[in-house]
Amino acid sequence: MKTFFITFISFVTVSFIQFDNEANLYSFIGNWESFQGEIVNVKFNENNELLFERSFNNEIVSKGIIDVENEFLIVKRLDTLASYKLKYAFSTDAQTLVVMKPYSKRAWLLNRVSY
Predict the structure, then answer these.
(1) Is 63 within 8 Å of 54 (Cβ atoms)?
(2) Which of 32, 59, 64, 96 is within CB 3.0–4.6 Å of 77 for a Cys-Cys bond?
(3) Contact 28, 88 (CB under 8 A)
(4) Tens of pLDDT along 44-90?
(5) Coil, strand, or helix at residue 37?
(6) Cβ distance 42 to 54 under 8 Å?
(7) In terms of Cα–Cα distance, which of 90, 96, 86 is closest to 62?
(8) Which residues contact 24 (CB under 8 A, 6 or more apart)?
(9) Rounded Cα gap, residues 98 and 83, in angstroms
(10) Among 61, 60, 67, CA closest to 45
(11) What SS3 string covers 65-86?
(12) 98-112 pLDDT, tens per residue?
């Protein structure tokens, strides 16, 4: 009975442990769509940097390079001189991405459309 109890407690404890699920650059690859109809295409460029292009109505709104540092995206825009650090979070299935907007308390809610 003791063995069963120890095994049961161990199993329950292990089930509640959250494993480190830190995102890497590959987690962001794909096409993402916001509820406002914006499309964000994320891919590697010829220099093996993570490139994003955000478009609305088939017109590019912003473009830049992304790097991942801890729980932040380091964004260097290519269409302006802006650069900033944005907080992000993935859903557990990595099909939904929330990214804080720069200089704002608002965020983009993006759903993965394709890889």
Answers:
(1) yes
(2) 64
(3) no
(4) 999 999 999 999 999 999 999 999 998 899 999 999 999 999 999 99
(5) coil
(6) no
(7) 86
(8) 68
(9) 19
(10) 67
(11) EEEEECCEEEEEECCCCCEEEE
(12) 999 999 999 999 999
- Which residue reads 């407690």 in tokens? 9
Q: How far does the chain reach from its first CA to its final CA, in angstroms?
A: 50
Residue 47's identity, in one-letter code, is N
Q: Which two tokens stand for residue 80?
A: 């302006």
Angle at 68 between CA 97 and CA 14, to 5 degrees: 70
In the chain, count H helices and then E strands.
1, 8
Number of CB atoms found within 10 A of residue 15's CB: 7
Task: Name the percent of the chain in helix, strand, coil, to the closest 5.
Answer: 15, 50, 35
Helices (H), 1-115: 2-16
